Each structure stands twice: as structure tokens, then as C-alpha cells.
């Protein structure tokens, strides 16, 4: 309750099973009541409620008055084998809606906004519901560059560290045994972007992560892999490219080309959508806005 009082101009008093909310306006009191109701609903469903959940409820309620429907309804939860994943900001909710509605979605914004995590959760849900036959998760291994040859091991062992965030997200959604089985059966494929060339990706949910590290030609190659009955999600942060100096980013190039095309969704995340650690937002501000 103290966290809610910090964020909203209200006073909350608990007496037994009753909660009393006082505020300067009915809007503030109503907002606090919606936050408390949302948190109570999470507990009732068996979920955990901590600081992150309180902050998420506050973010959602802050814009709910401008939406035609509540943003924290059960219908926006993505239910995977291990957990239910729910949007924690208005833009995350828009992202979930876009992935449900559009065949191609671009999620663009700073680190920690849940772009990859929500995309992986949605992909697992599509596979669980048998809306697709396989998941394909990809990243450009740009960070390796010429250094790749100096790493120990075969090609898979050299590339896997760059794909590890995708494995980690999948491990949050699927039990270890089931994840490994699906990978061995070919239902889940995690591969570098170069492996996508020449393929037609049909009946699949396809994710390209860290897309800011593609070149325009690589991006065009990837986007044109989209096949029948497939979903494609492209995520990235245009401010964090690892491309050589002077090399344009395929993600930055693609946004103005694709924006407005029917069947393509574009969701721009902002600093307020950062749901990782509170310090992440401060770190981003430190690098983006303060001279050294």
C-alpha cells in the first residue's frame, strides 16, 4: 500500500478485511481501487505480488481511462507450460495484441522492456495451441565478427553463447525435459540469422531478436522468408548496434519502409516500459542524456 501511496495522491488505510481510500479526486481514488483489485485478482489466481507487480498494476491503470477496454483482463495473459505471462505496461499490452492480430510485428525500444520475453511467450502459446507447427528463433551473431574463429569448439559451440538469451527465455516457459524434446524433434529451432537464407518458413512462429544488428539486405532476406500460416516478430533496440562504423542498421532502415502497411504491426517501447530492474532505466538515461 505504501508503494501505491508513493505513486498516487491517495491515503490507504486497512481495517480488518476492509480497505479505505482517500484522495483529492474520484479519479485518483478509483485508480487506487483498480490497482488493489488487480493485485487481489493476481493473488486469487495463485500468483505472487511484489514490488514489480505493484508497479505493473500502476502503469496499466494510469492509461486505462484512455482505453476502450481494461488492459489487465485475463484475456491478455499468455499461458505457457510453466507460467502465465501478463503485460506489465500499456505498450506491452499493445504488443501482445499486435502479435495476436498481425502476421508481422516489429517491437522496437530500449533494453528491459520485455520485447523478446513476450515474443517467446507468445510463440510458445501458439505452439501449445497448435496454431503453428514449430518455433524458429534467430539472432544475428554480429558480436562475434572475425573473433568467432578464435573461440574454442565447433560452429555450434561458438554461436550458442550469442543465442543464449533465447534459450533462457524458452526455459522460463517450458520444463527442461519438454524443451529439450521439442528441440530434438525439430519443433523448436534456435539458429543464427545466416541459417535463414533460402528458406520458406511456413506454419511457424518466427522471431528475429537483436534485429538492430542486421544489415538492410539481411533484414530484407529475413522478412521475405515469411511463409503460409506463419507469424513473424522482429525485435531490437536501434540505439544499441554492434555493426561496424558506417554500416546502416537493417532495423532502422525497415521501420519507415514497413510502417503503415496493412498486416504489419509496429510497437514502440519507451523508458516507462522498462520492467527489468529499476536501475536499468537510470542507466539508459545516464548513457542517453548526460554528457561525460
From TrEMBL:
Q: Where found, per UniProt?
A: Cytoplasm
| Cross-referenced Pfam families | PhoH (PF02562)
| Keywords for the protein's UniProt record, in alphabetical order | ATP-binding, Cytoplasm, Nucleotide-binding
Record domain PhoH-like protein: where: 85-288
Major subcellular site: cytoplasm
Molecular function as annotated in GO: ATP binding
Q: Which cellular components does GO assign to this protein?
A: cytosol
Family, as annotated: Belongs to the PhoH family.
Know the name of this protein? PhoH-like protein
Q: Which organism is it from?
A: Arboricoccus pini
